[in-house]
């Protein structure tokens, strides 16, 4: 089959940037990104591409270059499905909040809905590509829905996991370490793999395009994220020991990272990892292992999450303990709310959990994040369902300016590694704060000695 049209279901952090880059690199293809969320589609279509719903360095330029030429954003889901030869499924797969596997398994209701929609409208053979992170064997479920509810047309299901990291999505997409495509070992399966390989080969060297069976591909995605998260939990697991013994985790990370077998990346101690993938994917892995009765395997990976939760809790506890065991009525200012720098995404951000703990202790939390607004901050807290929306709103306030956010504060907590934070006039912040002025650097981005010289009581992670 000749590929001329692609449809992507889901205009989120994965679907949007991925399709923008495919559009840029494949001007001969027409790509339509669809979403049920009208507001989101309207934002993608905003005349000013700086207003697109996702902040990602370089993205708005790629959208400006391609939108209206061969990249389209639309709510007409069925039309786009019907016309395309390849359909990417890029919808969200949150952890289940109800029923069997609650808090662990992936909620596949959005995926199932997509499969049913595709089955309903497809009038000719299609290649369906799983782009969302999915539990192993989801492809089988999608195939079963498509084959049993469809109009008798043939579907090939491919697993093509996304490895982009937010904040660097465009460069990750342009220069991927590898592209992974899993498909059936049948002749039709191999043809479908070839069709998708040909698309990526427009800009990715062929030797970086790896093909496997569907299940290896699905499991590789979960495994990659589990390994990355494990490195962070491993380094974080030593921070408490460093604080007790006088070792410095930054020095330890540097020393071990120079061993070429270990390598220097993903060894930055922090207040804890966040993001939409790590926790969800590990929980998924744990759930799958448990469902096969592999309890040791499940417990091994679960520990990565337990350590991360401990790290967040420990950070909040340390603030309370250091501030003379009470933060009631005290102003604690957060620099950063996003789960990492260079994104406006806040899913699973450590800041949410730290704020929740501090509000329980009746602190007044003030926030400055260059890309996150008050509405988002409050909806993140409301999502935890710890207290009413009114109570959250009464205890948290966000500011457009870091100096205002820190005015009169008892302590500042750095929760996202935004580069601008390291370049502030910290003397000015110090002068505006209550004394003694405390800084809790949850990202180890400030210079400890300089902060102490200004007069701050400085607490980093693991030093
Ligand atoms: C991750 C994977 O990196 C990516 O390949 C996959 O496709 C999706 O999940 P993402 O969640 O966007 O990407 O960001 P990542 O850079 O992995 O960071 C995740 C979290 O770990 C962030 O909160 C980050 O601040 C934290 N982190 C990262 C650390 O605390 N220390 C580190 O050394 C690295
Ligand atoms: P990710 O980080 O995986 O891209 P997001 O939540 O940012 O996740 O994006 C997923 C998008 O998928 C959301 O905008 C959501 O509205 C959309 N979506 C979910 N189910 C469907 C569906 N059946 N049809 C169209 N869009 C959907």
From TrEMBL:
Keywords: NAD, Oxidoreductase
Catalytic activity: UDP-alpha-D-glucose + 2 NAD(+) + H2O = UDP-alpha-D-glucuronate + 2 NADH + 3 H(+)
Pathway(s) it belongs to: Nucleotide-sugar biosynthesis; UDP-alpha-D-glucuronate biosynthesis; UDP-alpha-D-glucuronate from UDP-alpha-D-glucose: step 1/1
Organism domain of life: Bacteria
InterPro entries registered for this protein in UniProt: 6-PGluconate_DH-like_C_sf, NAD(P)-bd_dom_sf, UDP-Glc/GDP-Man, UDP-Glc/GDP-Man_DH_C, UDP-Glc/GDP-Man_DH_C_sf, UDP-Glc/GDP-Man_DH_dimer, UDP-Glc/GDP-Man_DH_N, UDPglc_DH_euk
Domain UDP-glucose/GDP-mannose dehydrogenase C-terminal: start-end pairs: 333-448
Presence of keyword Magnesium: no
Keyword Iron-sulfur found: no
Any matching Pfam family: UDPG_MGDP_dh
EC number of this enzyme: 1.1.1.22
Top EC group: oxidoreductase
Xref: NCBIfam families: NDP-sugDHase
Family of the protein in this entry: Belongs to the UDP-glucose/GDP-mannose dehydrogenase family.
Protein name: UDP-glucose 6-dehydrogenase
Source organism: Flavobacterium chungbukense
